[in-house]
Amino acid sequence: MLFELIRLEFLKSFRSTSFAKSVMVAIFLGFLAIMLLGYLLLAGIFLGRILGELAEGQDPIEVLNSGLIFFFLVEFMYRYFLQKLPVIELESLLHLPISKKKIMHMLLGRSFFSPLSIIALILFAPFAFTEISIQYVVAGAISWLGTLLFISWTLHWFMLWFKQRFEDSLIGVIIVFIVLLLGGGSTYMGWFNLGELVAPFFTFAMSSFLPLAIMLILCFVGYYMAFSYYLNNAYLEDLAKEEEVRFVNQSVGFFSRFGMAGELADLEWKLIIRHKKSRTFLMLSAFFLLYGTIFYDNPEYQDGPMQNIFIFVGVFITGIFMIQYGQLFLSWNSGYFDFFLSRRDGVKNLVRGKYLLLLSISLLCFLLSIPYVYYGWSFLLIHLATFLFNAGIMIHLIIYLALWKPKPMDLNKGAMFNYEGVGAAQFLMIIPMMVAPYLIYLPFAMLFNFYAGLAALSTVGIIGIIFFNKLSTININRVLDNRYEISSSFRQEL
Predict the structure, then answer these.
(1) pLDDT (tens digit, 9 = 90+) per residue, 153-201?
(2) 231 with 104, same domain?
(3) Which domain holds residue 222?
(4) Once rounded to an integer, what is the mean pLDDT over residues 8-16?
(5) What percent of the chain has pLDDT over 90?
(6) Which domain of life is it from (predicted)?
(7) Which of 123, 266, 398, 454 could cysteine-pair with 385, CB 3.0–4.6 Å?
(8) 315, 326, 331, 311: which is closest to 420 by C-alpha?
(9) CA distance 133 to 141
(10) CB 322: neighbour CB atoms within 10 A?
(11) In this predicted structure, what is the pLDDT of residue 241?
């Protein structure tokens, strides 16, 4: 029966109207995966030498065991963002005389066949049989490598359960933040070294099969946890009810003060939290608020010319959602753009509503970045200046570039490795976005000082805010002049 389910999945793919496009995308992604896995294999082959150079005079095995927990923290993060949930059309199978258990086993088994499942094997197998086997014989190398593999595979099953259970909730975001804080943040801030605490477990795995047995059991527990959750929720009416309850009363009352544009901004917000791709962009914006911790406490960037990088960091932190979401300005509405086209002032209110939404979330990002004052009051001034510049100038620049031949996209697809809606403009707009603030800041900073540059940046931003209506009218008229061409391009099949 499992083979019959697999056969049905292949038939569905072959009969799809976008089969040729799917094959080309699969070939490209397959080539990319092979290339990346090849780089990992080379890194694994030379891992002993790399560790010897980085930690001269120390045992490479001890160094690696102390750092393995950070590898698995990174794996936790890239699985959270990259690992796709197994998808199957339950409507076409649940009414058939097929056991739900078999459907779920096929669903989970198919998810396991992924390049992510062999990264640990490719990276650490050469090291195990060239370094560890010399000191702990082949049995020790197999036990150590098997322990790493089962940890990686346990993370695979756990992530299937975790994303299905918490991906759409605030609890999931909080858990990921806690993992980051306790994992990397604890060592970076000097609270405790997690690597040294966990290293004895991996060292013990080289002389005993007990850690391997423990991780094998945990791997089966992870599979059973994911299997049970998928099986117990494989009822379409339950899923529909959950979706209905989850997004009730998500309106933002603040937007109602701005008339029809505010109503459309509120509608846009509901669409963001209801659709997977836009919701992912919103979550990434929250993660990137921590971007400043990489630079602000680093002595290399405190003095001299390197201090100027703080301007880019400030623009990035206070405008991350504006940059990510705004670069696909109209593509988010490609499925129903004709609705606004057929309404009086519909397109105009749509654009103004998007302006309102982008500015509101950028203001929220600025307020959430205030705790960076812990590193010094100058960083609060940087964020204030860059926020004003984003609100007065950068938002118009981003939208102007995003309106160059917008493309349609499907909102229900994930954001990772999904290039629907992305065109040449999205790749090129990073150049003016990086250059524009420095064109204002650098002349005054070089002639006078750092604070003069911030003052100039703030002044230009305030001028842009004062003339906001005139500047936004430029982009509104651009949409109106090209509305029929944009509408035609959105009707193209994805």
Answers:
(1) 999 999 888 887 776 555 666 777 677 667 666 666 666 677 788 889 9
(2) yes
(3) 39-245
(4) 60
(5) 18
(6) Bacteria
(7) 454
(8) 331
(9) 5
(10) 24
(11) 43
Residues 448, 326 share a domain: yes
**What contacts 56, CB < 8 A, 6 or more positions away?**
none
Are 236 and 251 in the same domain? no
> Residue 281: its pLDDT value, please?
77
The first and second tokens of residue 105, run together, are 């086993």
Please list, in sequence order, all residues whose beta carbon lies within 8 angstroms of the beta carbon of residue 231, skipping any fewer than 6 positions away. Answer: 100, 101, 104
The residue whose two tokens read 């600025």 is: 366
Per-residue model confidence (pLDDT) at position 54 = 81
What six digits make up the tokens of 354?
Answer: 């998007």
218 and 365 inside one domain: no
Show Cβ contacts of residue 314 under 8 Å, excluding neighbours closer than 6 positions.
Answer: 379, 382, 383, 385, 386, 387
Would 393 be classed as within a structural domain?
yes
Indicate the number of domains in the chain. Answer: 2
What's the DSSP call for residue 421?
Answer: T
Say if 8 falls within a structural domain. Answer: no
Task: Give pTM, 2 decimals.
Answer: 0.61
d(CA 6, CA 96): 15
Final residue in a domain of this structure, among 230, 245, 260: 245
Closest-CA residue to 440 (of 455, 420, 423, 425): 455
Residue 326 lies in a domain: yes
Tokens of 28: 């490209």
Residue 458 corresponds to which tokens in the numbers above?
Answer: 């703030």
The pLDDT score that the predictor gives to residue 125 is 92
pLDDT at 282 over 60: yes
> Can you give the pLDDT at residue 242?
43
Instruction: Say if 408 falls within a structural domain.
Output: yes
Residue 231 shares a structural domain with residue 252: no
Higher pLDDT: 88 or 181? It is: 181
Q: Are 208 and 101 part of one and the same domain?
A: yes
pLDDT at 325 over 80: yes
Examine the fold and report which residue of 204, 220, 245 is the final residue of a domain before the chain moves on.
Answer: 245
224 phi and psi angles, rounded to 5 deg:
-65, -35
Residues near 461 by beta carbon (within 8 Å), at least 6 away in sequence: 385, 387, 388, 389, 390, 391, 392, 393
Q: Are residues 189 and 223 in the same domain?
A: yes
> Is pLDDT above 60 for 419?
no
Cα separation, 374 vs 366, whole angstroms: 15
Whether residues 232 and 86 share a domain: the answer is: yes
Q: How far apart are CA 83 and CA 286, in angstroms?
A: 20
Count CB neighbours of 301 within 10 A. Answer: 17
Q: Specify the pLDDT at position 240.
A: 42
Query: What are the pLDDT digits (tens) for 56-72?
Result: 778 889 889 988 888 89
Residue whose C-alpha is closest to residue 340's, from 490, 468, 447, 205:
490
Nearest CA among 435, 438, 434 for reference residue 454: 438
Residue 349 has pLDDT above 60, yes or no: yes
pLDDT tops 50 at residue 244: no
The amino acid at residue 60 is P
